[in-house]
């Protein structure tokens, strides 16, 4: 009986010694001796850092894509003045009505033609006018020569309030040809050279005017314009 007790005591003592030795070893190595070698909280910290990096990368990609998709702003138009010619002046857009073979479509093209005339006077660019006019239009040739001639030297320009038409109506639309009677107002304009005023003109209403247009290739084209001075 005594031998059994002594044997049990020796086993308990051995287990204590073994536990103590393990504690000492763990203390010397300064590492945990549990199931995992990583200190508590290390996994969550690494995961958070990874998430932050991923979020930053995604944010950077979205910002870069948004920057690429954002269109560049249009330059601000600068009107003509005594200080210089117009800059970044927008070219007039052709209205949808000009593709209709009707009297209203012909009037819409005539109104657009006047807009191209105003654009020519402010920029010296006659291309938009000739895109919608017959090359045989004598009135168009006279207007073009007079206005582009001012800009040809490079130091002359116009300042203009713009011309317009009023009381326009189509007198006849037959066989793809239309005649439009209208009242034409030539806006006041000033010509400059190097900032010095050369002269002023315009401010005149022509009560008797007529335009001939043909419907060609699906839209109206200006053939000729006749503007007669008023009786007074």
From TrEMBL:
Residue intervals of the DUF6318 domain: 78-225
Amino acid composition bias (Acidic residues), ranges on this chain: 51-75
Region (Disordered): 30-97
Pfam families in the cross-refs: DUF6318 (PF19843)
Domain of life, source organism: Bacteria
Protein name: DUF6318 domain-containing protein
Organism of provenance: Nesterenkonia aethiopica
């Amino acid at each position: 009986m005594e031998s059994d007790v002594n044997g049990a005591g020796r086993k308990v003592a051995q287990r204590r010694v073994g536990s103590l030795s393990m504690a000492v070893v763990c203390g010397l190595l300064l590492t945990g001796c549990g199931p995992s070698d990583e200190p508590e909280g290390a996994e969550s910290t690494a995961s958070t850092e990874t998430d932050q990096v991923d979020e930053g990368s995604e944010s950077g990609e979205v910002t870069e894509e948004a920057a690429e998709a954002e269109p560049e702003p249009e330059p601000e138009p600068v009107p003509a003045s005594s200080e210089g010619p117009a800059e970044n002046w927008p070219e007039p857009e052709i209205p949808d009505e000009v593709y209709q073979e009707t009297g209203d479509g012909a009037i819409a093209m005539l109104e657009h033609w006047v807009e191209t005339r105003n654009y020519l006077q402010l920029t010296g660019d006659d291309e938009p006018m000739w895109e919608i006019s017959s090359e045989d239009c004598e009135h168009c040739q006279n207007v073009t020569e007079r206005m582009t001639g001012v800009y040809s030297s490079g130091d002359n320009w116009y300042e203009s309030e713009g011309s317009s038409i009023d009381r326009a109506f189509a007198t006849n639309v037959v066989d793809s040809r239309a005649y439009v009677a209208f009242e034409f107002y030539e806006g006041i304009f000033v010509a400059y050279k190097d900032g010095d005023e050369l002269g002023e003109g315009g401010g005149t209403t022509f009560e008797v005017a007529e335009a001939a247009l043909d419907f060609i290739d699906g839209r109206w084209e200006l053939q000729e314009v006749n503007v007669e001075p008023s009786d007074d």
